[in-house]
Design brief:
Blueprint lengths: L12 H16 L14 E8 L4 E2 H7 L4 H7 L13 E2 L4 E11 L2 E4 L3 E3 L6 H8 L6 H7 L13 E3 L2 E2 L6 E2 L2 E9 L6 H7 L4 H7 L12 E10 L12 E3 L2 E5 L4 E5 L7 E4 L21 E6 L2 E13 L2 E11 L42 E2 L34 H18 L1
Parallel strand pairs: 1-10
Antiparallel strand pairs: 1-4, 2-3, 4-5, 5-8, 6-7, 9-10, 10-11, 11-12, 13-14, 14-15, 16-17, 16-19, 17-18
Helix pairs in contact: 1-8, 4-5
Bound molecules: 2-acetamido-2-deoxy-beta-D-glucopyranose (5 copies).
One 2-acetamido-2-deoxy-beta-D-glucopyranose binds next to strand 17 and strand 18.
Protein name: LysM domain-containing protein
GO molecular function, one term: peptidoglycan binding
GO biological process, one term: immune response
Length: 422
């Protein structure tokens, strides 16, 4: 190896060579978090994606081969807006893109995205612009065994491997979904932590970082608090997890579930999209999916709820539950919806997370708590402040090994030694 090591350190030279080599690798390749996995289960994850140009909702969805409605609900964008799938989203808008995270060769990644090359595409344009740094040219080259990257056939269907993590759907034992976030030049770890209401320590732990330094292009995994579902394994929407402040659409567009803002309990109800759906009434009751009735008694509040139990064989499973609770539940609150964005609000970078909408729910003493029917309408007061407003890009940083902090510390030590001895 053409690495010279001071004689005084020769007894450690093998280690040094390894460390210097490791250092070089760390400096050259953008970091991203690597999560080992053993089974073939897939899970849900999010990509932080910044639009490289104006794109229709449906165009963004087709870049990732996902359902446009899911893209909208993940970003709490009002789907009742007329012709919303053809709405043009502005360049530089930041979106959370819901994807399926698989386990491939023992590592979590998303491999369901294909890109059909167009005239004048280059690998770096595809990776840096179209997929906004979520993938590198080398990764596309390797995934597709491209020997000569200068020759891309038009119409070639390229596999676009994308970073994702799941960590069992939890963070510090609480339900969480992970956003793969591409670090921008203006970003600091503290800024990212504050924007996503987490802590520097948590981000460092999740990403096995030895220091809080981040570089543009790194991809870090950001845990977002979420509402977990508990659908059976045989349900097609098993593992559904909805981040706080957003919605998900499931059961062939028949059911919509929301998370937050008041608590992190998944709340599902009929979706307002006009489609034919199987029955959403709970058996042996007159309650529909999402209905909650509450009856105050001397012993407490007798709460009956018709909940959603997953989509099984094309049928919507409903579950009636009754429980005696100390207090009657308030009116169901929903995350504020935003209108489809037409402009990008700059500057969320210095500001902490957008102020939550405060809509006080009464604490009804009445016997029936009607759940609001249909999708809550766009509330102008919510403004375009939510998750879609940022210019932040998400990338997930996967440090393959937990020993990285130790390596970094050792490196520093070694560098000092070399400095001193020269
Ligand atoms: C993953 O989560 C499930 C419940 O969601 C739990 O039973 C299991 O122990 C967790 N596994 C790990 C490795 O944390
Ligand atoms: C969920 O989001 C709401 C509104 O943004 C916020 O007030 C609340 O603290 C969040 N909950 C958690 C657990 O992060
Ligand atoms: C609670 O309400 C349900 C349905 O209204 C009823 O069947 C049940 O007996 C009630 N339980 C109590 C403890 O009042
Ligand atoms: C779903 O349908 C298939 C065949 O129609 C059946 O074998 C299977 O048991 C069903 N699953 C459930 C959970 O009902
Ligand atoms: C039950 O849910 C349906 C559908 O969401 C809604 O139209 C109805 O008003 C609800 N009824 C009660 C009593 O909550």
């Amino acid at each position: 190896m053409p690495v010279t090591v001071p004689a005084s350190l020769s007894s450690f030279s093998t280690l040094f060579v390894f460390l210097i080599f490791a250092n070089a690798v760390v400096l050259v390749a953008p970091k991203s978090t690597i999560e080992p996995c053993s089974n073939s289960n897939s899970c849900n994850a999010l990509l932080g994606y910044t639009l490289y140009t104006d794109l229709k909702v449906s165009e963004v969805a087709s870049l990732f081969q996902i359902d446009p409605i899911s893209l909208l609900t993940s970003n709490a964008i009002d789907i009742s807006y007329p012709d919303v799938e053809n709405h043009i989203l502005p360049s530089q808008l930041f979106l959370k893109v819901p994807i399926t995270c698989s386990c491939v060769d023992g590592i979590r990644k998303s491999v369901s995205t294909r890109y059909k090359t167009r005239p004048s595409d280059t690998l770096s344009f595809i990776s840096d612009s179209i997929y906004a740094g979520l993938v590198s040219s080398d990764q596309i080259r390797e995934a597709n065994s491209i020997s000569d990257p200068s020759v891309l056939d038009v119409g070639q269907n390229l596999v676009v491997p994308l970073p994702c993590t799941c960590f069992n759907g939890t963070d510090n034992s609480l339900p969480a979904i992970y956003l793969s976030y591409v670090v921008k030049p203006v970003d600091t770890l503290a800024g990212i932590a504050s924007r996503y209401t987490t802590t520097i320590t948590d981000l460092m732990n999740v990403n096995a970082m030895g220091s809080s330094a981040i570089n543009p292009g790194d991809i870090i995994a950001v845990p977002l608090p979420a509402c977990a579902s508990n659908f059976p394994r045989y349900a097609s929407d098993n593992g559904l997890i909805v981040p706080n402040g957003s919605y998900a659409i499931t059961a062939s567009h028949c059911v919509q579930c929301s998370c937050g803002p008041g608590n992190l309990k998944l709340y599902c109800m009929p979706a307002s999209l006009a489609v034919s759906c199987s029955s959403m009434q709970c058996r042996n009751s007159n309650l529909m999916l999402g209905n909650v009735t509450a009856q105050q008694s001397s012993a407490g509040c007798n709460v009956s709820a018709c909940g959603y139990g997953g989509f099984v064989n094309g049928s919507i499973v409903t579950m009636l539950s009754t429980s005696l609770q100390p207090r009657c539940p308030g009116v169901q609150q929903f995350p504020p919806l935003i209108a489809p964005p037409t402009t990008v609000i700059k500057d969320p970078t210095l500001a902490p997370a957008p102020a939550p909408q405060s809509e006080v729910a009464g604490s009804p003493t009445s016997s029936v708590v009607p759940s609001t029917s249909s999708l809550p309408r766009f509330n102008p007061a919510g403004g375009p402040a939510g998750s879609a407003s940022g210019v932040s890009a998400a990338r997930s940083l996967m440090n393959p090994i937990d020993i990285l902090p130790a390596v970094a510390t050792l490196l520093l030590f070694v560098k000092l030694m070399i400095f001193h001895s020269s």
